[in-house]
Fold each of these.
Amino acid sequence: MTITKAACIGGGVIGAGWVARLVLNGIDVAVFDPDPEARRKVDEVMKGARRAYKRLATAGLPKEGKITYAKTIAEAVADADFIQESVPERLDLKHRVLAEIDAHAPSSALVGSSTSGIKPTDMQVAMKKHPERLVVGHPFNPVYLLPIVEIVGGEQTWPEAIELAREYYAEIGMKPVVIRKEIEAFVGDRLLEAMWREALWLIKDGICTVEELDDIMRYGFGLRWAQMGMFQIYRVAGGEAGMRHFMAQFGPCLSWPWTKLMDVPEFNDELVDLIAGQSDEQSGKWSIRELEKIRDDNLVAIMEALSKENRGKGWGAGELHKTYVKQLGAAAKAKVSKAAEKAKATKPKKVAKAKK
Amino acid sequence: MTITKAACIGGGVIGAGWVARLVLNGIDVAVFDPDPEARRKVDEVMKGARRAYKRLATAGLPKEGKITYAKTIAEAVADADFIQESVPERLDLKHRVLAEIDAHAPSSALVGSSTSGIKPTDMQVAMKKHPERLVVGHPFNPVYLLPIVEIVGGEQTWPEAIELAREYYAEIGMKPVVIRKEIEAFVGDRLLEAMWREALWLIKDGICTVEELDDIMRYGFGLRWAQMGMFQIYRVAGGEAGMRHFMAQFGPCLSWPWTKLMDVPEFNDELVDLIAGQSDEQSGKWSIRELEKIRDDNLVAIMEALSKENRGKGWGAGELHKTYVKQLGAAAKAKVSKAAEKAKATKPKKVAKAKK
């Protein structure tokens, strides 16, 4: 199955990121967002994404899909076979939007939700016609570059919908991971939340600043996690003795007083001021746009670098990057040859006409 | 200040990693480890480190320092100006070893401990002569490649010792971050512990496998953390509205049921079996040595890639990588010119002799 026409409901950072990934893969997208600024915001993200893909797509890029702005959800989804919802994280809003999508989308269309935490079971109750086609397709920012997407099904979701989601997301260069059991926040955000909570304690208690904490990540374990995850890295650390040895050595730490996580830091103005102030000190010299460009360039550079490792086969996100670049290149050629065919198909007609 | 002679007490994965970093920077190291297998184990790590540096040091590498194996701690530290302790994480053992180091090392020598969690205050009580020169210098595996080192002082540590540690670690290509307040597990391991705990829950509850969790990291936020840390990435995610906006949006999640962290999973055989089994499935096709090579190649590749970003100035670990490569190259030349000088200095003498 191939996406021929997509709809994106919600054009914020995440929604616009989906728009960018889709159109850069040559797919037409209808956008619905009631924000009068939506078009400008999508344009902004598109600018960044085009810039990143110019560098990423070393083998060529298909002709960009067309973006149209719909006045209603009904209009946006009317002829879509893939719909991605990225509206704010409020269950009542999700219900309203999903009900409308469901009422107006073709019955064969797949519906993905970008929610980073709400269970699909709790969302699909609002879909009266085809709740079985709802999946969570949870991406990470920037959506047009980071490959991961967590797919989660709800109680009413059909296995076929999960499979179709896997195909659709892979088709636009992503790495789908299907979460086995539905829980709030799924896997990625559970882990991020754990880190975030501990990080807030460390800042609040004055153990380090946000810049120092970031440095400990990016000069340290972040470099490991970009290529192997936590478990594979620990397996290597365990050495020949293996994973069991590693766990025997570090397992007991769980009961040591090595964490503040048993408790939640109070989220007040003081904490926000502290962190926002330190963040200004750390990054105030760059605008967000500049930082975005640096981030995107770094992401492409890391994936490119990893695409040459493992005896040239590529490793992790680099292996996928290699495939993605080829795929975009092939799509570029396919479009060209389609156009060439079309030209050919037209030419003889003209010739025939002329002969008449 | 420059390290002229180092001693490494403990030659396990971490200790041997220090040996490798030091000798590859041209510094002689005396090793003490009572394990009869110590020499073989250090050789093994040296092999991996030499391989990695062959690729990393594109501008040249100084002549390798000499490794000698001492029969006692006293012998190892006798003429060292920098001593790094990397023995197992038991306070009684640390006390015994640090007492002996302190008794026999020159009084001007700096003592760094590789502990990943014990407070320096609790360790330095065993040092009767010069407790003020103990710092924690907590590295991350592989020590010869990952730049980060957390420096932590105890109650008796002199500020001058912290400063000297900063210089010494930077001299061998590391990124020192001084932790502002002494707490158990410092910063890096606090964060890792938070992740590890949540990860164990996710595996135990069957939400995902270790491979799926690793993929969510390495195709997702791991790629972000390798270049910016958590706070800088979130700042960018907050967009023009900034960090305050980001926090306002996600702060309340802290009180949502989005984590299992309030509780500790029971660490039993069942959990170990589950994880070790899944780890075999994920990585059993590679030997640990193969995985180590892949990891090291990937680390160098990522740092190399980042060294070309940010308009060629390099970014994060890549900026440091750039400097480090130059520094190693300069050291290579310095050794050469010293040797050339020596040769020159010798030659005239001979000439003079011949003239006589």
Amino acid sequence: MDELPGSLGTSASLALRFGQTIFSTASLLFMCLDVEFYSYTAFCYLVTVMGLVVPWSMTLMIVDVYSVFFRYLPRRPRITTIIILGDLALSYLSLAAACSTASTTYLLVHLGRSYCPAKLCTRYQLSAAMAFLSWFLSLGSSLFNLWLLPSL
Amino acid sequence: MDELPGSLGTSASLALRFGQTIFSTASLLFMCLDVEFYSYTAFCYLVTVMGLVVPWSMTLMIVDVYSVFFRYLPRRPRITTIIILGDLALSYLSLAAACSTASTTYLLVHLGRSYCPAKLCTRYQLSAAMAFLSWFLSLGSSLFNLWLLPSL
């Protein structure tokens, strides 16, 4: 069971965490690099949530890098439980943020160009898409770790 | 472990399922009883998801009623796993629907009364609130059953 791919400390987990870091950072940057996101609550919420997801997945990525390339870390049930709960909570939060951003952007696009210039709207859409991808990978990590938990 | 409150077949589970049925039906009715929900994708999505949640929670409520009042049903790992996966999937879907509806409604309210008459907007808000409550109870059911799974 120690070889289960996707659980903490394996190379599959490292790949998942790497993807989460990339996508959540991309989502944050697409939303933050223009200054108009304060106008809508949904966009502020996305920025807040991605501000939580980025350090979380980056920390776990560093742990995975250490475990894969340097020294294999033993798994402890308590730490795994905390990671599973954190992943589940963050995946719910990032799904909520992605959905809010997507529906707000959709509505802005359909209201016409006065509410949302073409360049800004594309950015919002890209940011929502990146948030969805980050949610999906976070859900994957969480489920793989959950699968491992009973054997610990 | 058979007495764990909240797992399938207990009275706490019955209460959770009852709440889910009430809230998801209320959310569906608040959204459907006026005919304008076709205009926005988020509202159509909410109606679709609540149309899945209502029969699911109603079926499980009937199973719980049978188990609590008539004859105690033995738990089987495979059926419990299916129920946990269904609950998790539906809780993600209903969270997504609730967030989309809430952010669309928020934007419509802030755009002014021409987009959203006062009576309709209150209905949309109530519908989103009910969807959030339904998500919360569904998450509860799912976590309680998940807690029980390793002991089966």
